[in-house]
Amino acid sequence: MTAVTALDPKTEILSLLANAVAHHANVVQIRVAGDRAVVEILAAGDVVDTRDWPLERCAQVVPAAFALCDGPEDFEYGSSRTGKMTGEKAALPAGLAMVFVQFFPPRDGQRHMVARITYDADTCCGTCGG
After folding, report:
1. How far apart, in whole angstroms, are the C-alpha atoms of residue 2 and residue 80?
2. 67 in any annotated domain
3. Residues 12-60: tens digit of each pLDDT
4. Closest by Cα among 2, 106, 13, 114 to 59
């Protein structure tokens, strides 16, 4: 389990995506669990990295993720939305073509944000079966 960092929220999202690429992962998800948020990186359905955040950190990072999505920034924390990151607002880690992101109101034990990763040419190096 990785400790909380003091990164800028947008930098933290890009760092999570870079970590996902390093693990050949296809999903980054944040779920609320009681008084904390659990960030998980999944490759082929298996959790390959996890970290805990206080809910306050989650409330900073989730809107920052939406701010990196293409289009207008009219997201309100706690609302349901979708967006996609194509590199329009910030360069994506090498190898990524797009990240489709779904945002959900925080509910205990359920997913709050899910980022589905699409690699260049719609496939990664093949080690994850993608």
Report:
1. 27
2. yes
3. 999 999 999 999 999 999 999 999 999 999 999 999 999 999 999 999 9
4. 106
- Where in the sequence is the domain holding 40, given as residue range(s)? 9-122
For 120: left if phi > 0, alpha if psi spans -120 to 50, otherwise beta; the answer is beta
CA angle 64, 73, 90 (to 5 degrees): 55
Q: Name the E strands within 17-110.
A: 27-33, 36-43, 46-54, 81-85, 96-103
Number of domains in the chain: 1
The whole-model pTM stands at 0.85
Inside any domain, residue 91: yes
Indicate which CATH number applies to the domain containing 73.
Answer: 3.30.450.90
